[in-house]
Amino acid sequence: MSWTIGSVRVSKVVEHEFAVPFEDYLVGVPDDVVTRYPWLAPHFVSEDGRPRTSIHGLVIDTGELRILVDTGLGHMRPVMGTPGMPSDFLDKLTAAGYDAGDIDVVVCTHLHFDHVGWNTRLVSGRWVPTFPQARYLFGKQEFDHWSHLRDTGGYHNVEHLHDAVDPVVAAGLVDYIGTEHQLTDEVTLFPTPGHTPGHVSVLIRSRGEEAVITGDLMHHPIQLVAPLRHGNFDMDKAQGALTRQAFVERFANSKVMVIGSHFCDPTSGWIVRHGSGWKLRTG
User: Fold this and answer.
1) For the chain, percent helix, then strand, then coil, each to nearest 5?
2) Whole-angstrom Cα distance, residue 191 to residue 183?
3) Is the pLDDT reported for residue 27 higher than 80?
4) pLDDT band at residue 283 under the 50/70/90 scheme
5) Minimal CA–CA distance to 45: which of 281, 263, 274, 254?
6) Tens of pLDDT, residues 198-227
C-alpha cells in the first residue's frame, strides 16, 4: 500500500497484523461498540468484533531522501518474556522497492519495542545496525527518559534497549533531536507527548497536499470517538488524552490525510465529525 502526497511517496511495509480485545486499548468500551459505531466494520474490526491492529513501518520517499518511520518488532526478538515472532519485514521492504542500504534516515516516533525492532539485526551472534547508511533520529527527551528508566529500574520494560537501541548508539549512527524537527522542506516532526514523554508525529506537506503519520498518539480509530478517554498504553494517560484531543481539533474536517501507525488497511483516512465525536472516513 502506498500514497502520493504532492511529490512525496509514502509506502507501508507490514510486519504483523492481528486482532486484540478492545479492553487492551481502552477501559470501559461497551459490548455493542461495533453496533454503535458501524463505520468500524469491515476494515477496523475482525469478524468477531475485535479491533484489528497492524505493526508496520512507513517509507517516506521525497526523491532526495528515503526516510523509514518506525521499524517494527524485529525477527524472533524476545519481548517481555515471549520468544518473539518470525518477521519478513526486510523482504517486504525490498518488495516495496527499497533495500536496507537505500534508507537514508530512520525516524523512531518513540522508543517502545514495537517501533525499534528492526533498528538492528542479529549477525553472527551480534546485534548490528540494519540500516548502516542511515542516520537514526532519536528524540533527546525520549532517549533520556528511557535511559532514566533503565538506570533507576523504572516502571517499564526496557529489555529492548540493549539490542535495538544501544548498538546504533555505539555505531555512532544516532542524531539526538528535539520534538520539533524539520527533515526536509516537505517533512517535519512535531511533538505529541503522552504515550511517551518525547513522542513525535510526522507531518508531510508537498505541492498543496498534506498528510500526517500518527505514531502511537492513537492505536486504533475507535479512539477518535472520544479522544479524551484514557489509553491503556500511554505512559502519561492524562497528557495522552489531551494530545489526542488537540490532534483531532487540528486535523478534523480538513484535507489532511491521517495515516495511522497501527491502523490496518486501508490505514489512512480523514477525521470527520460523527455525532458527538469523530470517525475516520476512508473513502
Assistant:
1) 25, 30, 40
2) 14
3) no
4) confident
5) 263
6) 999 999 999 999 999 999 999 999 999 999
What is the model's pTM? Answer: 0.96
The sign one gets for the Cα dihedral 17, 92, 12, 110 is positive
Closest by CA to 270, choosing from 210, 230, 219, 193, is 210
Whose grid coordinates read 476512508? 282
| Joined grid coordinates for residue 51 | 479491533
- Complete domains list, the chain, with CATH: 2-281 (3.60.15.10)
Q: What digits encode the pLDDT tens for the residues 3-16?
A: 999 999 999 999 99
Of 127, 123, 117, which Cα lies nearest the Cα of 93?
Answer: 117
Alpha carbons 102 and 98: distance in angstroms, whole number? 6
**Cβ partners under 8 Å of residue 194, min gap 6:** 217, 234, 235, 236, 237, 238, 239, 240, 241, 242, 243, 244
Give the β-pairing of 181-182 and 257-259: unpaired
